[in-house]
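Hello again, I could really use a second opinion on something today. My current little project is about how a certain protein chain folds up. You're getting the sequence in one-letter code plus the fold written as tokens. Here's the protein in full, and shout if anything looks odd to you:
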Amino acid sequence: MTPWADVPLPNASQSFPNGPLPDLPDNIWSRILGYATHVHGYNYLELDDELVRLSEQEKVNVTRRHVVLVSKRFYHLGLPHLYSSPHLSSEEAADAFAAQVESSPELAKLVRALCVQSTVPLSSPLQIHVPLVNLVNATDDRIQVLSGINERVPAGDMVRLERAVQSFTETLSITPRTFLNFPHLRLLTISGGRGTELDDVHQDALPQLEYLNLADAGPGMFQLFGSMGLPRLRELGFHIADAEEAFGFLQVHGAKLDVLAPHGHPPDGAELLPLLSLCTNATELHLLSVDLPQEEWKRWNAFISFLKIYRYKLPALEEFRIFHLRWPMHE
């Protein structure tokens, strides 16, 4: 049995009843099953956020499990849809899934989106040490896949990963080579880690990266990404407390940014380095983590005054956006 999905593994001697099914080619059945289970193949529809959310619904996964129980033929046709966006509803299921794909390279190649239900607590990060070369979406920071893919990807294989949110311990060394095998990565958020081997420059790493969030990144990470070319980078998220490190990064990449997303506020007594003057083409300024309790009005007013004075440093600015704004409101 597959402990995470509760369906039998392939068995050549097992006989499934063949119902009155239309005699269609496998490629037609595969497309039908893909639409029926909300898992579209690489040539059908892109794997977007809506497909990932659908995969978290139990009814969708019930359908996927039922498909593989119809017959031997449907087992093999339905297996890619079952494994493409696995429904991991417990820590035990997550561990069982990791063990299974690590022991089966063929199953590992089927995985496209990977996450554990948000309501399921994990006692420790789930590490998968296998090259998930067809993984597209890895936005659950409790699942660590980057190092497993990078260290074990077969020579010549193309890694399809497009979106990744990864959390590392601050003692884990991250080198520029870590990102060489991800030519399609467009969104990357990193927490923790420690940039090392910073002289090992790889200008051609991450050629498609558009969004980079280093708001919780560890020391040396700004310098690490600053050494890359990042020709398509358009948005940066960072913490104001890291303004000094971000300054060096923006000296290299600031002019290409459309969106600047600062988090938090500078430590007491710290001066905000002139970051805005390095981002003259930015059209949007996002404040992603602003809390405005009553006692912090002075800090908020100071920021508004700062923005008024230095508005000229953002000549292309068209939008000023505040997310998750909380303050006392009265009718």
User: Anything to note?
Assistant: DSSP finds ten helices and twelve strands in the chain. Confidence is low (pLDDT under 50) at residues 10-16, 326-331. The first helix runs from residue 26 to 36.
